C-alpha cells in the first residue's frame, strides 16, 4: 500500500507541475492582451472557408509532446531512485 501512495504522490506532483507550467501562463497571457475581444469577434464571423484540420493536428502534437515529457520525467525519476538503493 505504501508503494501505491508513493506513486500517487509522484503522479499528483507531476500533473500539478505540468498544470502550473503550462496552463497558468497561457491563461495569464490570454487575459492580459485583449484576446477575449478577438475571440468573440471570431465567433461572430465564423466562416467555413478553411478546414480546421491544422488546428487539431497541432493541438494533438502538442498534447503528445506534453504526455511524452511527463512519462519521460516519471521514468527518469524512478530509474534514479532504483540506483540509490
Blueprint of the fold:
Blueprint: H1 2-32, H2 35-44, H3 53-84
Helix pairs in contact: 1-3
Helical fraction: over 70%
Total helices: the number is 3
Count all strands and give the number.
0
How does the helix and strand content classify structurally? mainly alpha
What is the subunit organization of this protein?
A: single chain
**What is the makeup of the main sheet?**
none
Q: What number of domains?
A: 2
Outline: elongated
Percentage of residues in DSSP E strands: under 5%
Q: What is the mean predicted local confidence, pLDDT?
A: 77
Q: How far is it from the N-terminal to the C-terminal residue, by CA? A: 20 Å
Helix and strand sequence: HHH
- Computed over alpha carbons, the radius of gyration is 19 Å
Stretches where pLDDT is under 50 for at least 5 consecutive residues are none
What does this structure look like?
With 85 residues, this protein is mostly helical. It folds into two domains: 1-46; 52-85. It is 86% helix and 0% strand. The protein has three helices and no strands. The longest helix has 32 residues, at 53-84. The two termini are 20 Å apart. Residues 1-30 form the signal peptide. Keywords: Membrane, Signal, Transmembrane, Transmembrane helix. The chain crosses the membrane at residues 54-77.
Tag the structure with descriptive keywords:
single chain; 2 domains; 85 residues; mainly alpha; transmembrane helix; signal; membrane; elongated; transmembrane
